[in-house]
Structure formats: structure tokens, C-alpha cells
């Protein structure tokens, strides 16, 4: 039995070592060598052994010695990372060595003055170690004989809060140091951060649950680390970067004689160290480092608010000493603030190229993120409600990198009595068309797509596109120039263009202009489904346009329809019916449609067909490969005119597959399912009624 227990104990030891190694490779080196599923299997196996044989995995609980001898799962077991019993409060820990703060410099001149003070005091040249100033929560972690013993927040620098159980849940922090060449007592200092991706996910989950969101990753990291329930901390995907040593015993232990070297030692013991750390030999190199990091700031995986500049040589650090609660030999070279408070003076509403109506806050100008900001996005009505923001509120404005400034919170204590609600417009501020917001959608949109000046370019690009009126030579750049030069205001104006007017465009000679006029003339003759698709009504694609055309047969009947009638059409649901109703309720849109007919746009009349004559009614057809005698869209329209539903993929419900040249996987699947297959000649025979 003893032998068996020894074997199980060795297996537990091996699993702990293996899982900790994989944690290090994944969370520190970003170089995993096993799959997530295999990692999970190892964790499950360890947990089962620990639960089945608890006596084989117990050690002395050093925190409970004063109350008697207690045992617990060993400190370096990955099982400690999932969180334990919730605390009622945090105990206090007195730091073995004070955790000091840093003085700041804010521009090149102030850093040059800092450098001059140090060189004058030392009378020698200096090398600096430069690293990002991480925007999180400073912590101290104590290791005894290589095993994590306790962790504390900075607190007031002398006394911090005991956050040991929460720190154990952070997977980038080693529970046991790597190797065997480390001091018997080692205090490591660093920053607990929440990576940007984890922050976004956390707030996304909060929004989904209707809970309060965190303002920034720093607050999220601090709030997560100070949870009394360590299981909550474990779920928050916190990270850690080591940036300094605290107490080391014995003092004679062989530490590197420069700060950069000590960071490399920390890295060798299993701690994450920022890859951005760099040694600089001059003021110009430090300033170049600062500028480079600030330029790349938004691309980093974590938030920073500056860079930390430290004298690299440890002997020089000791000689320079400290002043008040900060070292003389280090400073924080701060970036321009990314968050500031200011007054919300009003709200304007802008209309985007797709018709989205966006509220924009008018702010009392404030310098934030390196620029003066007077406007900030409020996104949509839901965001206004979430923030609870009103006009005349004092708000916190954030500008990170090149991101558009946004309001992230209000200062409720400063709200004046005359603060007023923000009212979303019922009609478009550009064209006065109805503003539509479908239930369940976040964005409100202008319904005047063909008429609204804000949407004009996108509407006409769509109108001229291949699947719409297919005007050959009418590319995006041509449309943009036509509108910028005020030659076109609505789609109907395209049919009034002359060759001489078109020659006013860049790179458009008389021959090209003449060809474009001819293409516009050809495009007048179209089909009813193409015309409906070209109008750009929201969510009315090719299939829906074809179904509408086949159901109503004429434009007049379609224009006169209401939502109840639209819903009777195949594939038209409540939301699409609302879009159609709102579109044709706008007199502006109807005027544009009528002007297109007056300009000569026409299509063959769709004859009323008795339902029993729809030879393909109820059948599902699929087209694949290249058709040489018939345009794919025309083939689709003719099949739909015979009552068929034309699907994009093959399934067991498919009645027939038309296989053109170079047919691929759809043909293979149809053959496997035993589905009827026709070539192009077979299709033409069906369309001809044979």
C-alpha cells in the first residue's frame, strides 16, 4: 500500500509540474505545445487524484500556524488557481520594504532636466532601462524557497491588503519558481493588468446582462483583484508583468548588478517581463523610445500611460538614493492624459452614408489624448440610456490613440438642476424623412435612402451596380465625382447626363463619356426585380425583390400595398414589411421612383399567371457552374417566375440542380443525394415549357 501511495504521490507531483510548465508556456511565453483539450484533461486528472487522495497532497498552511497546525492543498498546485472560499474582508500586510511611487515628467524639457540633475550629482554618464508604464494595480508577491507565500496591494506604500488567494488565480504568475537558482526569500513587484481583449469581453458580458460596465481596463483590473470571492477573480483573465525586485535574502545572493539584468533573472524564474523593455545610453535614445512606444500604444495588448525610466546601474541607484517617497534614480515619463472631465453642452445628430443616425456630443473644449476635443460620439440611444447622460452633465471623455473620442461615464455629483434629457429625432436632420428604429436593433436609420443627401453616394453606387441596373462603366469613383461636381443629385439624374457633362470628370475623354451615355441608355431597359433591388430598400436583396415582383406584378400595386399585404409575400417577414412600408410612405422616395419611370426606365410587363400554370411551384432549384447561353441572374428570375425557389446550396430538400461548366462540390453532393441534375440545355428546355 505504501508503495502504491508513493507512486500516486509521484504522479501528482508530475502532473503539477507538467501543468505549471504548460501555464508558463501559454501565459508567459505565448508558445503553447499542447491543445486546450489536452490541457483540460491533465487538469481533470490532477483534480481527481487530489480529491481521491487528499492526504498525499497536503502541506502546512503557513497562514494558519498561529491557530494550530492546519493542512491544505500544496501551494504550487494548479488547483489553487480556481479560487477558494470567499473572504469576509481583506487582512492587512506590512511590506518588508516600502513600495514607493514615482515622480513624473511630462515633456522632453522636463526629462532633460531630470537627466541633468542625475549627471550633476554623479558626475558621470548614465545608462537607462526603459519600460512601459503599465496601467493596472501594483502588487508585491513574496516567495519562500521558491513557493508563492503571500501577495499584497501597494496600499499606502507601507501597508497593503492581503490578496494572496486572488493572485494565485492569475495564470501568468508562477506558483513555484522555475529552476533552482533563486534566493531563499524573494519579493517580486509588478503590475496586475487586464488585457484589452479581456476588458472588452468583460464589458460585453456586462452589457448582455444589463450590468454596469467598467470605465477602463485599470479600474477593471483593480476591481477584479479586490474581489472577496477569488472565484470571480479567476474568471476575469487578469495578467501580470514583473518590473522590479523588493526584498531579497540573503542580501549577498548573486543578483545582477544592473536593473535590466535583474529583469532577465526574473524572466528566467518564470515571470512575464514586458517585451518592450530596452536599455538606452542617451537622452535622445530615451526620447526616441518614448515617442516610439506612444506611437504604437494603441496596438499593444495592454493599456499604458507612459514609460518608466530607471538608472540601470544598481550601484548608481544606491548612490542617488531617495527623496520623500520616490527614488531619485527613476521617473515616469507620462503620456498626455487619455481621460478628462468636461461639460456636455449639447447633442447634434449626424447621418452616415448608410442612413445610420448617430448622436454626437458637443463638449466644452478639453485637451485629452494629445489633442483638443470638442466633440465625442455617443453611439446610439441605448448608449445614452446606459450612461444616463443628460445635456449640461459633467462627463468623463476618453481618447485612446487614434480612436474617436467618446464619453465613458458621467459625474453624477456635478449634475445641475437644469440638466435636460437627450431627445432622439423622429425625422432625419438632413432630409426630414422618417427615422426608423426596428425593435431589437441598436441603430436608428433615415428611411430617405434615395433622397437623403447624406446617403446619396452609396445609394447611387448601389443603383448602378451589376446586380441592380448594371450600368457598364459607372464605377464608384465615377459616381463620387458626379456627385462632388453636382452633376447628379438622384438616380434619375443619371439618365439626363450628356457626354459633354461627363467629360468634366477626371480621366474621362469624349469617347469614354459617349460610351458611358450609351451604357446608361441600355440600362433603362431592365426587369422589375432588378429595379426593386436597385432602390436599395433595407434588407430587400435579389431573392426578396424577385418575390415581390412576382407577387405584385406591377409597381403601382406594390406602392399601394401595406405591411399586411407585404407579409403575404414569400420570404418577407415583419421587419422587411416595415422597411418597405416606411420606404414607400416617404413622399421623397416615391418622387424619386416616379422620376425614374419618367426618365424612361422600363421593364417587360409581368403577366398575370394562373397558379396552376406555375409548373415549378413548390420546387427548390440550385444553380452551379458557368452558364454560357443564359445570364445566371436571368436564369434565376425565370425559374422564380415559374414558381421555383432558387437556393444557394444543395440539401435533401433540393428538387433539381442545374450544372453549368466547371461545376464543383454542389454537383458532387447532388449526385451523392440522388438529386435530379440538368445541364444548361436541359434548363432551357424547362424554361421553354418542354
UniProtKB/TrEMBL annotation:
Reaction catalysis annotation: NAD(+) + (deoxyribonucleotide)n-3'-hydroxyl + 5'-phospho-(deoxyribonucleotide)m = (deoxyribonucleotide)n+m + AMP + beta-nicotinamide D-nucleotide
InterPro entries (UniProt xref): BRCT_dom, BRCT_dom_sf, DisA/LigA_HHH, DNA_ligase, DNA_ligase_AS, DNA_ligase_CS, DNAligase_adenylation, DNAligase_N
PANTHER family per UniProt: CHROMOSOME TRANSMISSION FIDELITY FACTOR 18, DNA LIGASE
Boundaries of every BRCT domain copy: 611-690
NCBIfam families (alphabetical): dnlj, PRK07956.1
Keywords, sorted A to Z: DNA damage, DNA repair, DNA replication, Ligase, Magnesium, Manganese, Metal-binding, NAD, Zinc
Binding-site list for NAD(+): 36-40, 101-102, 131, 154, 191, 310, 334
Its job: DNA ligase that catalyzes the formation of phosphodiester linkages between 5'-phosphoryl and 3'-hydroxyl groups in double-stranded DNA using NAD as a coenzyme and as the energy source for the reaction. It is essential for DNA replication and repair of damaged DNA.
Cofactors: Mg(2+); Mn(2+)
Pfam families per UniProt: BRCT, DNA_ligase_aden, DNA_ligase_ZBD, HHH_2, HHH_5, OB_DNA_ligase
GO biological process: DNA repair; DNA replication
Protein name: DNA ligase
EC numbers for this chain: 6.5.1.2
GO cellular component, one term: cytosol
GO-annotated molecular function: DNA binding; DNA ligase (NAD+) activity; metal ion binding
The species this protein was found in: Shewanella benthica KT99
HAMAP family: DNA_ligase_A (MF_01588)
Residues the record lists as binding Zn(2+): 428, 431, 452
Catalytic residues of the enzyme: 133
Similarity comment: family membership: Belongs to the NAD-dependent DNA ligase family. LigA subfamily.
Amino acid at each position: 500500500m505504501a508503495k502504491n501511495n508513493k507512486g500516486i504521490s509521484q504522479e501528482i507531483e508530475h502532473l503539477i509540474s507538467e501543468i505549471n510548465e504548460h501555464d508558463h508556456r501559454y501565459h508567459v511565453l505565448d508558445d503553447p505545445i499542447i491543445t486546450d483539450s489536452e490541457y483540460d484533461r491533465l487538469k481533470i486528472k490532477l483534480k481527481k487524484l487530489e480529491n481521491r487522495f487528499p492526504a498525499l497532497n497536503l502541506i502546512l498552511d503557513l497562514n494558519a500556524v498561529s491557530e494550530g497546525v492546519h493542512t491544505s492543498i500544496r501551494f504550487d498546485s494548479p488547483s489553487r488557481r480556481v479560487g477558494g472560499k470567499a473572504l469576509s474582508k481583506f487582512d492587512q500586510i506590512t511590506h518588508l520594504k516600502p513600495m514607493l511611487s514615482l515622480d513624473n515628467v511630462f515633456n522632453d524639457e522636463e526629462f532633460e532636466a531630470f537627466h541633468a540633475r542625475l549627471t550633476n550629482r554623479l558626475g558621470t554618464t548614465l545608462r537607462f532601462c526603459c519600460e512601459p508604464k503599465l496601467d493596472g494595480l501594483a502588487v508585491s508577491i513574496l516567495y519562500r524557497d521558491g513557493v508563492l507565500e503571500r501577495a499584497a496591494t501597494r496600499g499606502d506604500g507601507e501597508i497593503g491588503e492581503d490578496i494572496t488567494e486572488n493572485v494565485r488565480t492569475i495564470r501568468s504568475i508562477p506558483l513555484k519558481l522555475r529552476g533552482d537558482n533563486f534566493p531563499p526569500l524573494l519579493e517580486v513587484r509588478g503590475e496586475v493588468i487586464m488585457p484589452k481583449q479581456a476588458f472588452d469581453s468583460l464589458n460585453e458580458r456586462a452589457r448582455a446582462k444589463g450590468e454596469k460596465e467598467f470605465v477602463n481596463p485599470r479600474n477593471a483590473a483593480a476591481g477584479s483583484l479586490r474581489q472577496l470571492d477569488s472565484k470571480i477573480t479567476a474568471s476575469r483573465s487578469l495578467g501580470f508583468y514583473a518590473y522590479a525586485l523588493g526584498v531579497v535574502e540573503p542580501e549577498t545572493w548573486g543578483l545582477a548588478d544592473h536593473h535590466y539584468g535583474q529583469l532577465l533573472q526574473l524572466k528566467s524564474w518564470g515571470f512575464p517581463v514586458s517585451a518592450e523593455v530596452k536599455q538606452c545610453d542617451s537622452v535622445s535614445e530615451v526620447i526616441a523610445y518614448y515617442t516610439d512606444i506612444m506611437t504604437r500604444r494603441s496596438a499593444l495588448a495592454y493599456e499604458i500611460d507612459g514609460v518608466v525610466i530607471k538608472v540601470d546601474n544598481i550601484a548608481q541607484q544606491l548612490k542617488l538614493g531617495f527623496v520623500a517617497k520616490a527614488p531619485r534614480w527613476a521617473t515616469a515619463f507620462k503620456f498626455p492624459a487619455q481621460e478628462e472631465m468636461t461639460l456636455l453642452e449639447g447633442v447634434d445628430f449626424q447621418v452616415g452614408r448608410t442612413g445610420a443616425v448617430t448622436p454626437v456630443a458637443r463638449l466644452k473644449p478639453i485637451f485629452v489624448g494629445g489633442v483638443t476635443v470638442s466633440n465625442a460620439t455617443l453611439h446610439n440611444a441605448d448608449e445614452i440610456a446606459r450612461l444616463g447622460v443628460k445635456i449640461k452633465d459633467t462627463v468623463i471623455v476618453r481618447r485612446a490613440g487614434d480612436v474617436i473620442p467618446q464619453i465613458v461615464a458621467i459625474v453624477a455629483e456635478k449634475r445641475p438642476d437644469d440638466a435636460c434629457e437627450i431627445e432622439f429625432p423622429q425625422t432625419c436632420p438632413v432630409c426630414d424623412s422618417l427615422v426608423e428604429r426596428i425593435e431589437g436593433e441598436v441603430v436608428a436609420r433615415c428611411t430617405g435612402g434615395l433622397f437623403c443627401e447624406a446617403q446619396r453616394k452609396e445609394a447611387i453606387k448601389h443603383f448602378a451596380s451589376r446586380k441592380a441596373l448594371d450600368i457598364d462603366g459607372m464605377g464608384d469613383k465615377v459616381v463620387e465625382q458626379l456627385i462632388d461636381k453636382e452633376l447628379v443629385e438622384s438616380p434619375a439624374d443619371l439618365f439626363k447626363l450628356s457626354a459633354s457633362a461627363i467629360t468634366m470628370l477626371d480621366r474621362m475623354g469624349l469617347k469614354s463619356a459617349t460610351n458611358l451615355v450609351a451604357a446608361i441608355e441600355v440600362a433603362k431597359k431592365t426587369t422589375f426585380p432588378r429595379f426593386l433591388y436597385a432602390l436599395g430598400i433595407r434588407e430587400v436583396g435579389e431573392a426578396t425583390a424577385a418575390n415581390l415582383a412576382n407577387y405584385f406584378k406591377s409597381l403601382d400595386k406594390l406602392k399601394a400595398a401595406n405591411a399586411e399585404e407585404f407579409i403575404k409575400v414569400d420570404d418577407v417577414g415583419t421587419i422587411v414589411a416595415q422597411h418597405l412600408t416606411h420606404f414607400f410612405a416617404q413622399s421623397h422616395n416615391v418622387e424619386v421612383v416616379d422620376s425614374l419611370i419618367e426618365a424612361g426606365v422600363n421593364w417587360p410587363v409581368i403577366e398575370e399567371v394562373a397558379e396552376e400554370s406555375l409548373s415549378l411551384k413548390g420546387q427548390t432549384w440550385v444553380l452551379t457552374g458557368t452558364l454560357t447561353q443564359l445570364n445566371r441572374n436571368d436564369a434565376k428570375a425565370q425559374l422564380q417566375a415559374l414558381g421555383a425557389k432558387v437556393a444557394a446550396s444543395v440539401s435533401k430538400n433540393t428538387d433539381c440542380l442545374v450544372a453549368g461548366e466547371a461545376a464543383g462540390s454542389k454537383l458532387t453532393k447532388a449526385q451523392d443525394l440522388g438529386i435530379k441534375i440538368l445541364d444548361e440545355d436541359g434548363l432551357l428546355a424547362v424554361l421553354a415549357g418542354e
